[in-house]
Amino acid sequence: MEEAITESFLLRRRFFNDGLSRIRVNLSNLKNIPTVVIVDGGCSAVSYLPFNVMSITPLVDQHDADLRHGNKVTSVICQGSAWNNNLALPELECKFISVQAINKKGVSIQPTTEQFINYLRDVANETKGVSQVWNLSFNESEPYYSNEEISYLGHEVNRISREFNILPIISIGNVSRSNNIRLCPPADCESALTIAGRCADENGMATTPCSMSLRGPAPAGMKKPELSWFSTLRMIGGVIDTGTSYSTPLISSIAAHAFKSLKEPTPDLVRALLINKAERCAHDLRLGWGSPWKEGNNLPWYCDEGTVTLAWNSKIRAGFAYYWNDIPLPTEMLEDGKIKGEIILTAILKPLVSELGGENYFATRLQCSLQSISNDGKVKNLLGTMKESKEKELQSRQELAKWSPIRHHGKSFSGVSVDNTKLRLYARIFTRDLYQFDMSSHHELSEQEVSFVLTFKSHDKDSGIYNSMKQRLGPKVEVGIIEKNIDIDNTI
Q1: Alpha-carbon span 417 to 14, nearest angstrom
Q2: Residues 6+ apart with CB under 8 A from 478
Q3: Which of 79, 252, 388, 398 is the most exposed place for a label (fewest CB within 10 A)?
Q4: Peptidase S8/S53 domain: which residues (predicted)?
């Protein structure tokens, strides 16, 4: 039995104490848990103040700050599973850095957007090296005035996150009397994971979309939300509340642990990993690609039994075809020359974006495909249709999300024939409107960063697929987590 595959963790018991208003705070483990920057109304809860690892000068004063909301979000970040032991959640705890920047509703004097952005930039500089995960459980009260343009707030949060190597986790927003569909800024931030809400069934499992949650799509061809999770939660004081403000910190917590667990994490690699491990292959405007964990599974940075995941970061130049050759198709997924099982490919481009924020916000796009090559040299696309460049522009934007920086392809195979057990991954970056950056050709563009996560799933959980892949790749890969499991390589 291989520890790399069977690594598991303890789940909580199935009970729910409605009368419990306090959760025991364990301070002995603080040095071993990751930190999340919480941009919210601050934290005044005495029980959680020991979890606050840095003092940040507030943007708004104590009287006007929405401390009640901040305390609730903080309690979910720190101990979301402990407060909600009736739900299927992994047992994760986090420290935090409280950034007191959001006022209560009805406060007449608010910081300007420019003051808010400048403040966030200062916070990013001050917290650099302490945490790369930011929880933003707030939204503007109304959608941006244009369906096709990126909001000023979304664009500026994106600029800060890219400059300081931050992964923002942002709520998509809640339904209101004046808006029951369109997401609210900064949920249109390109580099963020935008989070919607989900309901729970009687067994505490994630099911249908939450009726309080706004939905996608996002402007400029982005697929939002990326993920969703429980939005009706119990939190500090035993209060039960509903909103995407509370599903968001659940994702922030698991993202922070991903950063801590991976050897060479980047914001886009963590994003790609969480999306890759969610349960949906097709994107849904209300659920995104689903939730990044379900009961019975290992945490996303561990391979489940019967699966193997390859993850890596690369830099590639626009206009050139790149191939990662000789990726083994696990023999455990072959039966009479046909693929049996599931393959999921997630790739995220760090795109070049326009300062104009319009419909053509993205000046670069990624096209990728997992391919098999027959013995006579013919190419078969197993994942990724490669039709983005062939279809008419409008159709390709609408049906294939042509300009979305996230490419996510998944399929369950039952009878696709292949001639051999070697696959290749193809990727190419395309450009447009480079004149706005004073460039006349893509040859002037520097290398672009792309994160890839590729998962193979056998129908047989006892197949030994992990060891098989590791042996066939040999020294080309290394274990990619601090302890064990995901293989990261730049030279497959």
Answers
A1: 44
A2: 263, 487, 488, 489
A3: 398
A4: 63-290
Contact 227, 274 (CB under 8 A): yes
- The answer, yes or no, to whether the previous bond of 475 is cis (omega within 30 of 0) is no
Q: How far apart are CA 42 and CA 101, in angstroms?
A: 7
The helix/strand/coil state of 136 is strand
Q: Which amino acid is present at 333? A: M
> Which segments of 262-411 does DSSP mark as H helices, in order?
267-276, 393-400
CATH of domain 307-476: 2.60.120.380
Scan for tokens 């057990």, then name that residue. 421
Q: Strands, DSSP E only, in 350-477?
A: 364-373, 379-383, 406-417, 422-431, 448-457
**Torsion over CA: 376, 378, 380, 381 (sign):** positive
The answer to whether 15 touches 86, Cβ cutoff 8 Å, is yes
Tell me the C-alpha distance between 180 and 182, whole Å. 7
Strand partners, 100: 40
Task: Supply 398's token pair.
Answer: 């609408």
Inter-residue contact 367 to 384 (CB < 8 Å): yes
pLDDT in tens, 269-310: 999 999 999 999 999 999 999 999 999 999 999 999 999 999
Q: Are 260 and 228 in contact (CB under 8 A)?
A: no
DSSP string, 255-273: HHHHHHHBSS--HHHHHHH
CB 207 within 8 A of CB 192: no
Overall size of the chain counted in residues: 492
CATH topology agreement for domains 29-277 and 307-476: no
Instruction: Extract the tokens encoding 399.
Output: 């049906």
> Cα(54)–Cα(127) distance, rounded to whole angstroms?
8
Cα(191)–Cα(233) distance, rounded to whole angstroms? 26
Over the stretch 232-283, which tens digit does the pLDDT of each residue have? 999 999 999 999 999 999 999 999 999 999 999 999 999 999 999 999 999 9
Residue 377, classed as helix, strand or coil, is: coil
Pick from 291, 294, 316: nearest CA to 304: 294
Residue 449 · residue 268 · CB < 8 Å: yes
CA atoms within 13 A on the CB side of 81: 19
- Domains of the chain by residue range: 29-277, 307-476
pTM: 0.92
% pLDDT > 90, the chain: 81
DSSP state of 84: T
134 pairs with which residues across the strands? 37, 168
The residues with which 372 forms a beta bridge, in sequence order, are 380, 423
437: three-class secondary structure by DSSP: helix
Identify residue 427 by its one-letter amino acid code: A
43 close to 71: Cβ distance less than 8 angstroms: yes
